[in-house]
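Today's session is about reading a structure prediction critically. Students often jump straight to the picture, but the first step is always the sequence itself: look for stretches that repeat, for charged clusters, for runs of hydrophobic residues. Only then move on to the predicted structure, which in these notes is written as discrete structure tokens rather than atom positions. Here is the chain we will use throughout the hour.
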Amino acid sequence: MISFYESGDSMIAALQIQDRSSPHFLQRLKAVFHPYDMTARRRKYHKAAVLHIHYHDYRGKINWQKLSPYLAGCHPSILCDKNICLDGTPYQRFESHDYTRHLIRNFVTDMLKKAALPPQALRIAYYDPMAAYPAMVPALADYSTHLTIVTDMPKFYEKEAEQLTALYGFSPLVSNSPEALTDSDIIVTTEVIDSAWPLSAQTIVFTPQTPLVALKGTILSEYCVNIPYPYQRLQPAGMDNVYFLSALYTLCGIKDMEQLLPYQCSDGQALYTADRLIGRLASLRPSA
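Below is the predicted structure for this chain, in token form.
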């Protein structure tokens, strides 16, 4: 049996499929006898191992029976394009926002530190419905005395608020209503936004994914970060940096990736560096 697994590995599979099926009769006839080509290459650094599988499909149908031996020992969450159908297989596409939370925290806190605005100058809100990432709160509290937390678990965050009062001398507002976000200059969330928020056109929102609804403001959901050199050779060609880093962090346990700082972010149309956003923030409340 084919296996690329070695003891002690945290091996993940990156599946890249190229559809070479053809409507022409002779090509279809050829595909009956030669339905696919496949190559697999294993690359490793430190405790991360990535199995690169290139599958050239000539029939318009993936032969999972042939693929499965190659995937033995790999994590069942596969790195692949969203358009690849994994229904009926024991695998699923890797998806997680756990790592992006750290990138958002790093970018926002670096931006606020560089801005050096008085903590009374900005109104910052944090939306965390399930209290999934409370570490964001003290990171934001360093830069604003007007801090609002919107959550479906207010009792949890009320305890956090008590600790902040002891440390910083002010208590953040804890609410379960998105209406509390209305007057915010900056909103940070580590969850996908799936409902309309009452925002102004000047609001800057940091989120891990494009919202499922239309919102006013500058909605930043894409983050640009460089992959550390030793891990670059593990990255499949053409794969998004954040998606790949997220897999290294979540599936392989490479926790050092938490410290990486995005050099810019995007709303899907324009690119924003920290300096560009700082200019926006400084003009919001010039009298503060």
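Discussion point for the tutorial: The CA atoms of residues 16 and 238 lie 10 Å apart.
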